[in-house]
Amino acid sequence: MSTLSSLARAQAVGRGRAQPITTVRHVHVSERPLVCVPLAMAGEANAPLAALVGRDRGAPRLLIVAQPRNRDLRFEFAHSLALNLLGYIGGFAGAGPVGSRPGGGSTPRVADAPQVWVPNRASIDFLRLFGRSTRFRSTTGAYAVPVSVPTLGKWLTFLAERAEHPGSSMLVAATDVLAQHWASGQSAVEDGNLAALLGWITPPTGSDGAKAALAAEDPLVCPPAGPSTDTTFDREVLEPSIAEYGLASGDSERRRRAVTRLETALRSQLEPTWHLMWQTIDQLRVLRPGEHVAARWDLDEDAFQRFQTHVTTGGPPQPKRDSAVAAAMRLNQLERHQAEYDAQRAFDDPLVMAEYRFAGDAFVGTVTSAVPDRRVGAGRSTVLRPLITVSTQDLVRLVAGDGPVTDRARPLQRAEIVSVTKTADGLEITLELAGGMGRGRTAPEGTVPAVGEQVCFSTLTAAYQPRGSFPARENTPWTHGGPPAPPVPTGDDAKEEWS
Description:
The structure is a single chain. This protein is α+β, with helices and mostly antiparallel strands and 499 residues long. The chain folds into 2 domains: 3-320, no CATH class; 346-458, Elongation Factor Tu (Ef-tu), domain 3 (Beta Barrel), CATH 2.40.30. It is 39% helix and 18% strand. It has 12 helices and 17 strands. The chain has helices spanning 3-15, 71-90, 121-134, 148-163, 174-181, 194-201, 209-216, 231-247, 252-285, 293-312, 324-348, 350-359; strands at 19-20, 34-40, 48-54, 61-64, 95-100, 106-110, 116-118, 171-173, 182-183, 362-371, 375-376, 383-384, 387-392, 405-407, 410-423, 426-434, 454-458. A 6-stranded antiparallel barrel has the order 10-13-16-15-14-17. Strands 4-3-2-7-8 form a 5-stranded mixed β-sheet, with helices on both faces. The chain has a two-stranded antiparallel sheet with strand order 1-9. The longest helix has 34 residues, at 252-285. The two termini are 35 Å apart. The model has no long low-confidence stretch (mean pLDDT 89).
């Protein structure tokens, strides 16, 4: 937690209300999201119990597993969930407008992509594991499942993997997004309770955040927001209801009544969170999106289109484990995306940039002098390297020789710090500029900050970062297990190792 975030939490306690820590919204909010509130069986590894799912806040679909230990009922649940999720995803599969691609070509692009909302990070983990337990299932043989089940597993795995990409908005945990935009007066662990966090953000009239969060801890008022259930509910309601379903074997009418009682009990646990989920979406929609949000959503759309093609052409399920090379490439990609995402958030939002200014990695100041036509080198090798001097009162830890640093208004231009001089009013920082000024002998107007202009330089950069160099799969070094054998699907793939 940064110093400024700690200050915002302290202010939230003093004012009785969560404090905004951003000025814009940093996540895409779809016009037609799918909300899914899952529940898992306590004491059973990744055993689905129920889910409330749908696109219409007034008409959610309740799916239950009357006996979570029953394999057939589990896969009936998976099939029902697949019908809802795959039907939703299928609505985005049609090609939209023609968009340009790198290299000058163009290809049909999807007009939009699906967005799934879940209550918290634990719900994402549940869907990830549920995807792993279903994507390898066979549709033929003694333990055949419907075709929809392994397809569901592929999509759940894809969504969970996209959720790991910084800035992705395809699978969204409500508590994570709210905590990214508001600082409550409670700990980060307590922010994992959706009802408590929303209580701090929008406390009821006549109350405050602390009282609302305390009320949210009562499981009778606000049941846990999934995938875990309340232990008292498990003991006093759920266990007897499941036992009654088991005793009703052979009596269809008694079993129907047992299922009805289970549905009523589980709906009572899920509906409060369902309403909180839509309240979260409404709360975020009123915020103005950041400048780079649309571009990040374009990347989600492209990823969706690629995977949609993979699934429709009969592509295999994602492997259980990445090879050494694939894992290294994925880690490198995530690190590059994280650096880009951090820069984009800071460039879009002065409150986020303030964190870097406070740490001394960024500074805001006024240009006091500029030499826009300065050139260095000799003869035909001369290059344009303007100098500017910036006066700032920020505490800067950067010194001469540090760089490159980037101006928020000119993200493609790099600057090196030439000197840092203390003055009576703060610091005078001289910078040498490079890039972003065309190929002419003089810099076009506006490409070099003018005297009197306010600038914001930081060590952040949103520029393209090339991928690291990695060996081919067949050249995996012996220190990493050597070349891996080609993946061959087997019956063991479907085994649940966590059970």
